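Curious: explain these tokens?
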Amino acid sequence: MPERLFLNALSVVQDLAGRLILPGDTVVDATAGNGRDTLWLARLVGEDGRVVALDIQQEALERTGRLLKENGMEDRVQLLCLDHSRMESLGLTDVKLVVYNLGYLPGGEKTLCTGADSTLSSLSQALKLLLPGGAVCLTVYPGHPPGAREALALGGFIRGLDQNVFDVVVLDFPNRKNHSPYPVIIQKIEGGVSGEE
């Protein structure tokens, strides 16, 4: 069987981010969750890079912290118990990538999940923090009612972004069952990115 180009939403995001991030970069994991994205980002930024990982649940940060320690990556990551809608309060600059894995904490309380209002507020802030050429990657989960509402609001938001400032790509999986998760990628092109037409 040939290798699948589009295994799932997370693989698409990881492939793109792996090409974008360089050692020494600053990146944000806006939804730390179980820490797998945080660990993967910590490896990409290298010893001189920085990952800021946010989550509103202390349980998620504890899981993430354990995973980072098991892999010797805890020194590259700052873990903060903070709603991603307060991202601007961190005073970050020169951010290369912001990653969101929307929905609820796997294995956690399913009533605690990301929502349209906080996600759109956070996304607005993230887009301001990005370096030209940097990107925001969201994995969207429309398969449960709050996720479907969040996906709908996100769709309206991204359609309104200025095409002279941002490239927006949504990769849907229309033949997969159960409202498959899908990636949304927003690259900041203002300031000049090679390959512009």
